[in-house]
């Protein structure tokens, strides 16, 4: 296990602990489910490592978790986006992504193949949705207290989480992994860890410093 991966897990665990320490702030909001998504993420990572150490395939597990994660964030930001046309875009994006995900599983017929193309598409949809939501916040009265909204820090963290590793996902989508050197793959993985850690830091900050007054939705 690399040092970068260990650091990634430390920040993830720190964020999960913080989310439950401040759970009272948002336990009656839509964000109450978010910590459980991160708990599930940690369980998946531990299980995947265990499977790999015992010479079992673990790609199928990542495929299923990432699908759940994407659908959760489609649902979450559908709740927060106010414009009706943008809400329709969220629904359209989630349907297109999920149909592509299911189609890829049926066509590939191998549950241990990482579904790079559907996940890259879903990632792009979520990035667009995050920009839509952040523009909505900035364009409203919420801008006056934007740093007090937990959902602002969540969306900002997710933006880094999905944008930073995009070069890796695009590279793996357009170029077969065997055609990329070990050094390039390693470098892109380090970038991915940076995106993860930035998300953990921003969301942890939001849990601590957001106001309960502005998370009651």
Précis, in short:
This protein is mainly alpha-helical. It has eight helices and no strands. The longest helix is centred in the last third of the chain and has 28 residues.
Give a verbal description of the structure.
This protein has helices at residues 3-21, 34-53, 59-80, 84-108, 116-138, 150-163, 166-174, 182-209. With 217 residues, it is mostly helical. The protein has one domain (3-214). Helix 2 (34-53) runs antiparallel to helix 3 and helix 3 packs parallel to helix 5. The longest helix has 28 residues, at 182-209. It is globular. The termini are far apart.
Provide the domain count.
Answer: 1
Would you report the number of β strands? 0
- The percent of residues in helical segments reads over 70%
Low-pLDDT residue intervals, each spanning 5 or more residues: none
Indicate the radius of gyration in whole angstroms: 18 Å
The assigned structural class equals: mainly alpha
Describe the sheet with the most strands.
none
Order of helices and strands: HHHHHHHH
C-alpha end-to-end distance: 40 Å
User: What is the overall shape?
Assistant: globular
Range of strand content: under 5%
Total helix count?
8
**Mean pLDDT across all amino acids:** 89
């Amino acid at each position: 296990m690399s040092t970068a991966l260990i650091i990634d897990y430390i920040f993830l665990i720190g964020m999960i602990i913080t989310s439950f320490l401040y759970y009272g702030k948002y336990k009656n909001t839509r964000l109450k489910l978010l910590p459980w998504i991160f708990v599930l993420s940690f369980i998946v990572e531990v299980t995947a490592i265990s499977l790999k150490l015992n010479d079992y395939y673990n790609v199928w597990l990542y495929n299923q978790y990432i699908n759940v994660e994407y659908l959760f964030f489609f649902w979450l930001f559908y709740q927060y986006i106010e414009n009706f046309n943008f809400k329709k875009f969220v629904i359209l994006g989630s349907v297109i992504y999920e149909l592509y995900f299911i189609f890829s599983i049926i066509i590939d017929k191998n549950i241990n193949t990482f579904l790079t193309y559907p996940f890259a598409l879903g990632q792009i949809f979520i990035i667009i949705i995050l920009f839509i939501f952040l523009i909505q916040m900035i364009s409203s009265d919420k801008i006056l207290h934007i740093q007090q909204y937990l959902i602002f820090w969540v969306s900002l963290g997710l933006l880094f989480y999905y944008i930073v590793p995009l070069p890796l996902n695009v590279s793996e989508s357009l170029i077969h992994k065997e055609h990329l050197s070990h050094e390039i793959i390693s470098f892109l993985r380090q970038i991915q860890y940076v995106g993860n850690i930035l998300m953990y830091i921003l969301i942890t900050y939001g849990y601590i410093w957001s106001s309960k007054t502005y998370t009651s939705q």
